[in-house]
Design a protein that fits this description.
The structure holds three protein chains of three kinds. Chain A is α+β, with helices and mostly antiparallel strands. Chain A has 13 helices and twelve strands. In chain A, 31% of the residues lie in helices and 20% in strands. Chain A has a five-stranded antiparallel beta sheet with strand order 4-5-8-6-7. In chain A, helix 5 runs antiparallel to helix 9, helix 11 packs antiparallel against helix 12 and helix 12 packs antiparallel against helix 13. By secondary structure, chain B is of the alpha+beta class. In chain C, helix 7 runs parallel beside helix 14 and helix 10 packs parallel to helix 11. The chains are: A alpha+beta, B alpha+beta, C alpha+beta. The interface between B and C is large, with 111 and 143 residues.
């Protein structure tokens, strides 16, 4: 861990001023990802601004039935247990509880989880010199290396890493909006636009500007959101990253699917919305045959590597199971 | 490993130690009366005396860029000058002599460093100490009331909920929180909510039994 | 040697651990928790390549970094003496024989290339990141296929034959009318991953006296190797290890970090603390070699084995030897069979040296053999338990000596009864429930009875308390507790009056905590010391006119109950330890005893523990992660010394076996040879939610031919057979035979 200046921000403007003043600044929330990566030498900030005391930890209803606002510093465990979330957005509660451990969920914040970095070993361990994400232009060690946890959708020759967050998969399904504050005031980023695919610049993982602070995530209100579900498939019963996960929601009308959401985790550089699969399910009965057809569409463009080709079939089955579960709910 | 060996004979008497290393770095070796002592002698009659060796040696030296911070640990204010890089875990272990909290992985992947901060369990290895000014921190050393064990500690002892003991302080802190959170309702719930604490010795069934019993006792005490 | 003359005071009782209170209050101190005044902290930089040499190493920036006291590399590290592990009897173990920072050659990824000492850990870690190294890199060999010409067939491993031949297995396999199967089974690299990373605190008290706090399974071994390396008198090296946070074999040898830490402390003239990072634990403290095992079995249609051929390929490094005798330690002991052939080939690769990991040999060996036996049972359409009973070995199949005791058939029967095996339907996929596939499988467990050498010292005080000492170890096994119980039993004192000291090289010789030998070895020495103590007391009493036992020949005076001596033949007069000492004007009496193989209590027998493992798995057919839902483990390990800690030992073995079966694999990156899974998020060990209730039972009788307690070890047998029982249950559930561990869900997606 390199030496850094530590300070505690009393309010958001102080944090923003710090970001503007020193480009090599990292904001400290729960620290579960940042401190981990600093110990590995992957993150080397010159300045740490502790924002944990900012008043951004509320989970509250927005006026006018516009939904729920989750503060960027709300802890994962608090969000998962909050009655508004449990009742209206079960997929989010389930996703949060499927992630990490009780201890880590007590630390990790919503904002930090949005910025969680990949678990690709070639990124995480600087002993591997080839990682375009950590060192642009150095190559991708995973392409020909150990790639069991890696992407099957949306990857590039530069990077096949996956996004490790469970929470973000649920937020992708829920059409969430990320609220950010910068030197020029506030702006909103639709969830689908928040994370990026790797393309030629895998080092740029989100569309958050370096001088911006995440303040909240807004969850819109729709009736179907209460009928949602998160299914995570992993190598052990708990405390493991997803091989494949699915956030799913279904709204029925007259025996036909009116609204459906399918978001995948563990398969891409960002939480992956299976939009084409969703579209083809509209108007169909909630039956296994339709789910299977949709799952085939969801993985239609998937490409596997030496150790992760199984994820294509696993993703297919996980989609079918998640939709089946939510249809029964 | 050698299956059968002979009894050892005392080593041959060696000659004088030859010149060793770069003369420039060779120093006079000062004989120190270190706190290393003899191996711990163990027996039931002396165990009651062996409680916390807290606040023993303040060994690590603060760096030039040290930050002043006061940590409130087990009800006591502990003023410290710390390199901001110091994690809460290293502050406890290396600066305060509170070595009950363990370093198993240093990356939030094992739970051995679990402590309670404002009543909530966290991984102290992924938390900077300087960020905890004003927090109420409880470590394994703060659970027993004098000689009286916390019910979770007593249940771990009775159910043999540990072997090597290295994950144990983290397991116990985690279990205390697990019960307080209301996540000890069934065996499967305990298993899931204790899965952030690895035990390589494999004491899990006994840890489960201990928490099951401690939960009952905690409930009847409340 | 006496056999117990009184009904057990404490042996066998489910006593709580005597060191338990220290552990549950956080007061037990492990190696890295000792901080001598002025202690400095070290961080190691490790090689990014696996084969080649260091061309340029630039440490200038690191040396100037704040707090740094020294940066050791191959260029400036002091040259040390090459230790010879076999120089001294009962000497230490070196798996990596090359001394650290000895030259510029890189033999494996993760090799230490620089050692930074600074005032704080953060300063040392940061300074290490400032070291720039240019390597001359060559493509590494990582598997036997990469280095086919390096294969060797070792004759012996730790004094035991590795290549076995009984009868003509090739001929047996070719016999007409037999059912023959031949399969390849693979186990991956597994890493011990104790919760406490290895750690050493080294302090030079003077230029010729070294004290080490070290996480070790072998204080006397560390003392021996360090004394040789630094050319010190043996007694001038003191090694303390009162608590060890798990080991499972990875803390038995002297690994390079120990020598590095002592070297660095010498160079800087201050105590140095080095705890391996979790990453270092995947390259710096050994691992279990991967195995590829080809097993051929031939049996009559009635299920009588006629031939077993077990060929194993394993790996070792270029800088040390290690042999994992998978065949000899499974097929070489398990079944009655007229023809047995075991071959072992070891290849050299650019990976760190493997070492002992819980049941080395038996563990991968029983996975292969017991999977093959299940496949044979399927081929024969025979019940797996019935097949094993039909081939039960009534004597050691290779040594052809009778067993000291063997109650394996009882273990099969009791296990089957407790598990409800009779309700099993043989057909795969035939036992589905609630939409899940249910599979029941079983396998045999085995581990030898081992004894090494030990000396025990008893210090009996006139106040009726006693201290017993031996440089043994408690790595979580319960040795503190069990040896306290044995001492109380042997001496004849209430357990509350006993204390046992271990984990200090200043104490009388104790063996490595390996081979599940501690109870048998140290317990034997304690009994010998107790005999000497009793004789000394008898002599005092016999000679003392005031004693009720005056005039009775000392040899006729024995311990008859807690703290009491009496004539062997009555008539009812007795004297107490305390009175004898008081009248003799002694505050205490001290006697030593020892145990030294090959002393045996009954010649011509073979000592081997056996057991039966039964398990149930449930598998979602669509998302086929395997969940173990029930486990029954029945063991014949002789007499149980402590019902509570014994059960825990078996539980722990089974849990590690579940990890081996389903989760554990250290994967090396093809290009660099570095482990790509060197942390506990990627190297999965079981979590609480992976583990069901585990039902442990013991069968059998005390093995008094083995030692005066009648106990064989329990530390390792629990893991043996576990992976096979699970793999067999997975086959029963799914119809898919997975012959390559771990059984991750991708292998069941078909």
């Amino acid at each position: 861990m390199n030496p850094f200046q530590y300070s505690r921000a009393a309010d958001a403007p102080q944090a923003l001023a710090g970001l503007a003043h020193q480009p090599k600044t990292k904001l400290l929330g729960g620290g579960t990802n940042l401190i981990d990566l600093m110990k590995m030498g992957v993150e080397t900030p010159a300045q740490i601004i502790d924002i944990t005391r900012l008043p951004l930890a509320q989970v509250e209803e927005l006026p006018g039935g516009k939904g729920v606002r989750v503060g960027a510093l709300a802890r994962n465990s608090d969000v998962a247990a909050h009655a508004l979330i449990v009742q209206r957005y079960p997929v989010l509660s389930e996703a949060l509880l499927a992630g990490a451990s009780p201890q880590l969920r007590n630390m990790a914040t919503v904002g930090g989880n949005l910025l969680q970095r990949t678990r690709c070993p070639y990124f995480y361990d600087p002993a591997f010199s080839a990682c375009n994400k950590r060192q642009p232009g150095s190559g991708c060690g995973a392409l020909e290396g150990f790639n069991r946890s890696h992407a099957i959708l949306g990857q590039s020759q530069q990077c096949i890493a996956t996004h490790p967050s469970d929470m973000c998969v649920a937020l992708a399904a829920l059409d969430a909006v990320v609220r950010v504050q910068g030197p020029n005031g506030e702006r909103e980023i639709p969830f689908a636009d928040f994370h990026r695919l790797p393309g030629d610049t895998p080092e740029h993982e989100t569309n958050l500007a370096p001088d911006e602070l995440i303040t909240a995530v807004d969850l819109p209100t729709s009736a179907w959101m209460a009928r949602s579900h998160y299914l995570k498939v992993r190598d052990r019963a708990s405390y493991a990253f997803a091989l494949v996960s699915v956030a799913a929601a279904i709204e029925m009308e007259d025996g036909k699917i009116k609204t459906v959401r399918i978001a995948l985790g563990g398969v891409a550089h960002k939480p992956w919305r299976a939009v084409a699969a969703e579209e083809m399910l509209i108007g169909k009965p909630a039956e296994e045959a339709a789910f299977r057809a949709a799952a085939d569409v969801a993985v239609a463009g998937a490409k596997g590597y030496q150790h992760n080709t199984f994820k294509i079939e696993l993703a297919r089955r996980t989609i079918v199971r998640a939709l089946t579960n939510v249809a029964k709910a | 490993m050698p299956a059968e060996t002979d009894l050892p004979s005392p080593g041959e008497s060696p000659d004088e130690m030859p010149a060793f290393g770069d003369p420039a770095t060779r120093r006079a070796f000062v004989k120190q009366v270190a706190g290393t002592g003899a191996a711990l002698a163990l027996g039931p009659q002396i165990l009651a005396m062996q409680t916390s060796h807290a606040a023993q040696a303040v060994s690590a030296t603060a760096s030039a860029d040290a930050v002043a911070v006061t940590l409130k640990i087990n009800g006591r204010e502990m003023p410290l000058e710390l390199d901001p890089r110091t994690t809460l875990l290293d502050a406890l272990r290396e600066h305060l002599g509170l070595t009950g909290s363990k370093k198993g992985c240093d990356h939030g992947q094992c739970g051995a460093c679990t402590v309670l901060v404002n009543g909530r369990r966290i991984n102290s290895c992924l938390s900077l100490a300087v960020a905890h000014e004003g927090d109420e921190i409880t470590t394994i050393e703060g659970l027993a009331k004098g000689e009286e064990l916390h019910p979770v500690q007593a249940a771990f002892l009775e159910h043999d909920g540990f072997q090597c003991g290295y994950c144990t302080p983290g397991q116990i802190c985690s279990a205390v929180a697990c019960i307080a959170e209301g996540h000890a309702g069934s065996d499967d719930e305990i298993r899931e909510w204790m899965s952030g604490n690895l035990c390589r010795c494999g004491a899990y069934p006994n840890i489960l039994a201990a928490i099951r019993e401690a939960k009952t006792k905690t409930a009847s005490a409340a | 040697m006496s056999t117990p003359t009184i009904s057990p005071l404490v042996l066998g009782k489910p006593m709580n651990r005597v060191d338990g209170r220290l552990k549950i209050t956080g007061a037990a101190k492990y190696a890295a928790e000792f901080s001598p005044p002025g202690v400095l902290h070290a961080f190691a930089l490790t090689s990014k390549i696996s084969k080649g040499r260091i061309a340029v190493i630039d440490t200038a920036a690191a040396e100037l970094a704040p707090g740094v006291r020294t940066v050791l590399t191959h260029r400036n590290a002091p040259k040390l003496d090459q230790p010879n592990p076999s120089k001294n009897a009962g000497g230490g173990i070196l798996n990596e024989e090359r001394l650290p920072l000895n030259d510029d050659v890189i033999s494996y990824g993760g090799q230490y290339v620089a050692f930074v000492v600074a005032q704080t850990l953060e300063q040392a870690r940061h300074a290490a990141s400032l070291i720039a190294i240019t390597y001359e890199e060559a493509p590494p060999a990582l598997t036997s296929k990469d280095a086919p010409d390096s294969g060797e067939k070792p004759k012996k491993n730790n004094g035991e034959a590795v290549q076995l031949k009984k009868g003509d297995a090739d001929k047996g396999l070719a016999e007409k009318g037999l059912v023959v199967i031949e399969r390849i089974y693979e186990t991956p690299t597994e890493t011990h991953s104790p919760m406490e990373p290895s750690a050493t605190v080294a302090e030079w008290e003077s230029k010729d006296r070294l004290t080490l706090h070290d996480a070790t399974q072998y204080v006397k071994g560390v003392q021996d190797i360090l004394a040789q390396t630094f050319n010190l008198k043996l007694e001038n090296v003191r090694v303390l290890s009162p608590f060890v946070g798990g080991a499972f074999g990875c803390k038995g040898a002297v690994w390079p970090h120990l020598i590095l830490t002592a070297m660095a402390a010498k160079v800087v003239g201050a105590p140095v603390k080095f705890a391996l990072s979790r990453q270092d634990m995947f390259t710096g403290a050994g691992h279990r070699t991967p195995t590829m095992q080809t097993i051929a079995l031939a049996a009559t249609p009635q299920g009588e084995l006629r031939a077993i051929r077990h060929r194993t390929e394993t790996l070792t490094s270029h800088v040390g030897e290690f042999v994992e005798s998978a065949g000899a330690r499974s097929s070489g002991v398990m079944y009655a069979c007229p023809a047995i052939a075991v071959e072992e080939t070891v290849f050299k690769v650019n990976v760190a040296t493997p070492t002992f990991m819980r049941a080395p040999g038996e563990c991968p060996g029983t996975f292969a053999l017991e999977s093959a036996m299940d496949e044979l049972a399927v081929a024969l359409k025979m019940d797996p338990v019935a097949l094993r009973l039909a081939n039960h070995a009534t004597q050691h199949p290779i040594k052809e000596k009778p067993w000291s005791t063997n109650h394996l058939p009882d273990a099969y029967r009791l296990g089957a009864e407790k598990f409800g095996w009779a309700r099993r339907t043989a057909e795969p996929r035939s036992m589905q429930k609630d939409g899940l596939l249910v599979g029941w499988g079983m396998a045999t467990a085995t581990y030898p009875g081992y004894k090494m050498a030990a000396v025990a010292n008893i210090h009996l005080s006139a106040d009726g308390t006693a201290v017993v000492q031996c440089a043994a170890h408690d790595i979580g096994t319960g040795a503190y507790t069990v040896l306290t119980q044995i001492s109380a039993e042997a001496i004849g004192l209430p357990v509350e009056k006993m204390k046992f000291e271990l984990g200090d090289s200043d104490l009388p010789f104790g063996p490595v905590a390996g081979g599940s030998n501690t109870t048998a070895t140290v317990g034997s020495a304690i009994y010998d010391a107790a005999d000497a103590l009793h004789l000394a007391l008898a002599k005092l009493a016999s000679a003392d006119a005031a004693s009720p036992l005056h005039g009775i020949p000392p040899a006729q005076i024995v311990m008859v109950g807690p703290g009491q001596m009496a004539g062997r033949n009555g008539p009812g007069k007795s004297d107490s330890f305390a009175e004898i000492l008081r009248r003799a004007g002694k505050e205490f009496i001290e006697e030593k005893g020892s145990f030294k193989p090959p002393l045996v209590f009954q010649p011509g027998v073979a000592f081997q523990s056996f057991g039966a493992q039964f398990c149930e798995v449930k598998i979602d057919p669509a998302l086929p992660r395997v969940q173990v839902t029930r486990f029954v483990s029945v063991m014949d390990c002789g007499r149980v010394m402590n019902a509570k800690t014994a059960r825990s030992q078996i539980l722990g073995g089974v849990v590690m076996g579940i990890g081996m079966a389903l989760e554990e694999e250290t994967i090396y990156d093809r290009a660099t040879g570095l482990p790509a899974t060197r942390n506990l998020a990627d190297y999965h060990v079981p979590v609480n939610a992976d583990i069901p209730e585990i039902d442990v039972h013991f069968v059998g009788e005390p093995d008094f031919a083995f030692n005066p307690m009648g106990a064989r070890g329990m530390g390792e047998i629990g893991i043996t057979g576990t992976a096979a029982a699970i793999a067999n249950a997975v086959f029963h559930a799914t119809g898919i035979r997975v012959r390559s561990l771990p059984i991750t869900l991708d292998k069941l997606l078909a």
